[in-house]
Amino acid sequence: SQQGEEDPQALSIQEGENATMNCSYKTSINNLQWYRQNSGRGLVHLILIRSNEREKHSGRLRVTLDTSKKSSSLLITASRAADTASYFCATDLTGGGNKLTFGTGTQLKVEL
Amino acid sequence: EAQVTQNPRYLITVTGKKLTVTCSQNMNHEYMSWYRQDPGLGLRQIYYSMNVEVTDKGDVPEGYKVSRKEKRNFPLILESPSPNQTSLYFCASNKRGFTDTQYFGPGTRLTVL
To answer: Are B105 and B7 a contacting pair, CB within 8 Å?
Structure first.
């Protein structure tokens, strides 16, 4: 399986509900990032959390990082229809070279 | 407006016909990358460049070439495209290194018949 696997693969919720997505990885990291992709478009950076941080907030987004479990979660509070998109985690692997390693994403659908 | 642009956005071509996808950024970033995105495989890095005239292979470089003659431009060249290169391609740039926040272009959807 791939480094940076998101769970669930797909999530459907009602507007106003919270959405939680998880990302697991296998080896040690320097940082972990979350990106959003609207259908067929480029990825947009949401938030970066470093390996020595445990939680970070940005507007309605809350990201946690548990390096002991090698996992991260992205919480979107009070979701809106405009949050409908795919969400990817990307890890900067220690010794992983000049790249981010992206997961396969969680497709979030927020219904009115 | 700070942005990464790609052209064309959509391209349908035939096997063996050379093509170039252009990428340009106006943020004076030193680092640029090309990715391809395929269902179930996420994004995979094709090539990257750390500065003018400095390029290196990513995870899936076979069948691709790049050049970096100017800081702002990083074209992706397919000398002899094959159907397995049908994919969604993204160019990205960043300021401080490849593992920092990446700024992505809008994507180029390529179909090779």
So the answer is: no
